[in-house]
Amino acid sequence: MRRVRVIAAAATLAVVVWRLGTGPFVDGLRAVDGPALLAAGAIGLLTTVCCAWRWTTVSRGLGVDLPLPAAVAAYYRSVFLNLSVPGGVVGDVHRGVRHGRDVQDVGRGLRIVAWERSAGQVVQAVLTIVVLLVLPSPVRSFMPLVVVALVVTVVGVVAIDRTRVWAGRLRNAVAADIRAGLLQRRALPAVALASAVVVLGHAVTFLIAARIAGVSAPLLELLPLALLAMLAMVLPSVAGWGPREGATAWVFGAAGLGADRGVATAVAYGVMVLAASLPGALVLVAGWFPRGVVLRPRGIRNV
Q1: What is the pTM of this model?
Q2: What does 84-128 look like in DSSP terms, one character per residue?
């Protein structure tokens, strides 16, 4: 299944190149300059710290005290791996396994990472839906149907949950994790705030990429396009490439801004976020040595 997803991402990228040629990719690479890289690095630091804060918050709720400095270093490493290894989730799996081994509970380490990332994606989806309902975009006319579909899906899941014994057991396990890791009085505001800042930071990076790629549309017109493209970035990719370029080509073309400008923006964005993740490469290399950076949680507490 993983191989199929990577092949699908590669096929998406191949179709974009076939339809638009290599020109937009070259334009995107050439557009990236020093100020853009510095801005990406600063924003990347902010978003990485916020992600690490979210991780430590969820970890604490599930019984593991994770120091923020170690979490920041590990998150940088995770982001770099996600952007440099096919699949797009290798860094998160590595982070969860490494954390789990450090606390002698790999299952708990992976659950913490899964809930931390899921919480961020839920906040991203909510913010995206709100923006798409308010601001003009190629999909605005479909948004009421999207909201209805989401409500129907939730009702369907609840109905299945109440009629299946195995679903009830799964529900109890999931509910326990969510209550402990995400819905505590101190955890929920921190997770929501950190996730919102991360989404905003990525959106600002995308807007900068659009500007340096030559897109002069108003920011309020570009913001929905940025959020739509960011939704595609959670899909399996080839080291970050594939769905991102396909999605930006489509949304920019549908908005009348030109599919080629969309691809150039996506390429510039990809270069910027990869450059911002390079501290993670240093953390990765440092971890090969005895005195390298490692996670040192304070141990598991009973929750």
Answers
A1: 0.88
A2: HSTTS-HHHHHHHHHHHHHTT-HHHHHHHHHHHHHHHHHHHHHHH
